[in-house]
Amino acid sequence: MRKALLALIPNLRAFAVSLSGDADQADDLVQETLLKAWDRFESFQEGTNLLAWLFTILRNTYFDERRRRRVLEDPGGEKTDALCVHPAQHGHMDMQDFRRALGAVPAEQREALILVTAAGLSYDEAAAIAGCATGTIKSRVHRARNRLIELLNMADTGEFGPDPTAQAIVMHSSTQVAGRVPNK
To answer: 103-178: which CATH number, 3.30.930.10, 3.90.280.10, 3.40.50.300, 1.10.10.10?
Structure first.
């Protein structure tokens, strides 16, 4: 057995170098293969191809080692969570729903909402453009916002989309409407 294993080392090393591309790693791989073969020699069936059996052990050892190196220790899941990205299609679908709902808001309310939230105009500037009182614009924006929440079946603005862009739009709209951000 010992003579047969020693005679096949050059073949094992050549195969290991072809797999790993590194002579030092190939030597380690051959050594590990010979140790495993020696420990499990009773599983080798007499009369079968010893070289093929050793090549199988070497190949499995190589791929097991590669798999082990790729596995990342992350017991708390923090690294995995950092790699998590919300799928873009949800934001796209939310935007389509929003556009449909916005189209269902009465024209005067929609105009006021767009002037104040999307265009970033002050209530006074929006009132001048719409030709009405500032209080009327505030009322229209408030009613438009409530109608959107109703049409989108939202309990609050936190339900609108998981993506940061959608959240920023909603939060900007909410703070503008609620008067928490000073108007221009």
So the answer is: 1.10.10.10
70 or 35, which is more confident: 35
Q: What are 120's two structure tokens? A: 């970033």
State mean pLDDT over 73-96: 69
0.85 exceeded by the pTM?
no
Q: Does residue 3 sit in helix, strand or coil?
A: helix
Question: What is the Rg, in whole angstroms, of the alpha carbon atoms belonging to the chain?
Answer: 34
Calculate mean pLDDT across residues 117-127: 88
Give me 34's structure tokens: 């010979």
> DSSP states of 98-136 as a string?
HHHHHHHS-HHHHHHHIIIIIS---HHHHHHHHTS-HHH
Q: What class does CATH assign to 2-70?
A: mainly alpha
Instruction: Identify the CA nearest to 53 among candidates 62, 43, 63.
Output: 43
Q: What is the pLDDT of residue 62?
A: 92
Residue 13 is predicted with a pLDDT of 92
Distance CA 58, CA 12 (A): 8
Please report, for the chain, the start and end positions of each structural domain, with discontinuous segments joined by +. 2-70, 103-178
Distance CA 177, CA 147 (A): 13
